[in-house]
Design a protein that fits this description.
Elements: H1 3-27, H2 32-62, H3 64-85, H4 109-130, H5 140-163, H6 168-192, H7 198-228, H8 231-248
Helix pairs in contact: 1-4, 1-5, 1-6, 2-3, 2-5, 2-7, 2-8, 3-4, 3-7, 4-5, 4-6, 4-7, 5-6
Amino acid sequence: MTGWAAAAAWGGVAGASLVGGALVGWFAQVRRTVIAIVMAFGAGVLISALAFDLALEAEESGGLKATALGFALGAAGYVGTNAVLARWGAHHRKRSNHGHQPSPEVGGSGTAIAVGALLDGIPESVVLGVSLLDGSGVSTAVVAAVVISNLPEGLSSAAGMQAAGRSRGYVLGLWAAIAAVVTASAAVGYVALADASPETIAAITAVAAGAILTMVADTMIPEAFERTHLLTGLVTALGFLTAFAISRG
């Protein structure tokens, strides 16, 4: 398999998790406690992935300056995007609760969440594609982190659009289109950045790390704590340890 095709395949995994979340949100009623436990575990996985497979590797390849700049831009970019999308009800698009209220102006917060997922998914997939450039392969922990963070978006959006009266074909078709764009983004990232400097790649990777850490603190941990309370820290630590063991194994 050629490099760009492998990148597209991993991007497809990320896109499939968005569609999977949408399918769950449309057809199933998952207990909030179960989702909260998954959220807490996923938060630990994400923190481990961004620390050891994104930020650390970015610093080692491109230096601290490029990494710090990218990390700060990623965090600020996520906050800025949330500030804009919050007006349409998608501030907590990474959360899985069904409490989003449809907005008459835009046809429901579910559509805004889908837009947010597209904005999140493109840079995440680009990072997956870029990670293949050095020949070491994609980190299992990073893939797991992306999948876990994508599921709530599809779940929340599908539930919100269902409540707003959207048809099943519309909802699933929209998420299939988003998944296709996410898949293509990984391949484009691989091709476009094949000759990029280590500093550029480090900065781009760090952007994803900064955005992920901000998202974890803003959405995933608060939702997990709502249901699991004192168990949140323990489950999060277990997720961190699991991802750390996988990445260093």
